[in-house]
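Notebook B, p. 112. Complex prediction, attempt 2.
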Amino acid sequence: MRLRARTLLTPLALTAVLATAACGSSGSSGTGGGQASGSASGDACAPVAGDQLVVLRDDKQLQNADNIVPAVNSATATASPAVVTTLNAVSAALTTEDLIRMNAAVDVQRQSAADVAAAYVQDNGLADGVSGGSGPIVVGGSNFTESTVLANVYADVLTAAGFQATVQEVGNRELYLQALRSGQIQVFPEYLSTAADFINRLPDVNGPDAESIASSDVDATLSALRPIAQQVGLIFGAPSEATDQNAFAVTRELADQLGVTTLSELADACGDGSLVLGGPPECPERPQCQPGLADTYGLSFASFTELDAGGPLTKAAIQQGEVSIGLVFSSDGALAQG
Amino acid sequence: MLSAAGGVVLAVDEAPNPWIDPSYVTSNWEPILRYLGEHVRLTVAAVVIGALIAFPLALLARRSRYLAGPVLGLSTLIYTIPSLAMFAFVAPVTGLSAATVLIGLVLYSLVILVRNFLAGLQSVPDDVREAARGMGYGPVRMLWQVELPLALPSVMAGLRIATVSTVALVTVGVIVGHGGLGQLITGGFNANFYRAEIVTGALGCVLLALLADLLLAGVEKALTPWTRRARA
């Protein structure tokens, strides 16, 4: 999926570069001058407003394989093995294209997450051939579109398998993982690498200072995750092909002004530390966010602005020139706007 | 090449996204009612439980000045804890349940309720109390038949403020998934800034607060007929 996202986004970024290279030639000398004097005074990478967002390629593979994978409470999985087998059937069918399409259906076409999930289950025949379930089961979903849609997909398929599944909206991982361990919610659509590192760094596993066990290798990450997940009372099913991982976007104007398409090139161009980073409040602590950008790419930031996790605030802040670079999600439909 | 990406290339601004969209309300009637129901249940439960706790606290605070300081100080101190932090503190104990939100809401309602109850009780003139005592009223009967009716305007004012502020605070419960109409507000934010959904949640909160305030104003009027007679 990493490849698929790149193949989708790289041509887009290229067209963006080509398009502005042609029409921006008259003003380019002006911006060039401003840029030169800017780097001297240390604001070469200050935010530049623009409508089009461009994802900078993660050429040093900072982002891990964040495949969608069902997380299930161990006691539930032991009591009803049908939960994991049913959810594995969803994993087998789910692709990143499906994710993007469902996200766009909710975020752009304004359908409800429950309707989109129901239509997806119907169209892909996911309700057929699942069975063996009984009793109530609560599927958690974080409060953003993709997680809500996936939680509804899980719930619909579990209902088809005979469970009485309901969806419970929850907040961030710090809260819902505890609820999943204690069995308040029994199922959660997780992201493989993010969940692996989060669980590994729990105080009762290897502690907050533990080395990352996630990588861009799905199988390696999964086999590192499963034993420690078992330890905290969780079972992870089969990961799907679909992934949604962090990506960093700038405006096309800033990318053109600096002539960058990758994060490495951005680090080279922004050695003066004038970048303004925007992201979710937990970004300065999350290894895939600010610390990762600093360690892997050597990026330094003038400041960090608390926004949301790849949501409207972040996208608007990049577009309006409040931040230079912001955290977005690679499956976000807004990135592909032409 | 761009069109090859299909429906995904629709820009954020290209899609119609009006602030007011009645079709959103009609096509999402069922979840809206569910969230509204949760909002009302949480608000009513929080104010009722808050009042049941605040009343003895107010009596306690009235008994001595030494107790009044800590009681009022503590409830004010709780009120200064940011609501997001409050729910995050309570969540590890009570989990992702409505109880988490309810505990926070009750604690926040205390500062308003205790202060108003206390002010009401202190507003009873000493000579009225003395006259009642002279007529043979014991402390319990005096509280119910003399002091409480006279304190009622202040008590009701406290209940009205607490109710309105609770309606607004329920929305913060989204961090544990029990935010009533707040689910619509954050849901709209997270669904690519769906204005109709955000407005429905926000407007719902405002209307609910207004309605609750009117209702309690009516109750107050019905309970204190003498205030109208005096004015007439």
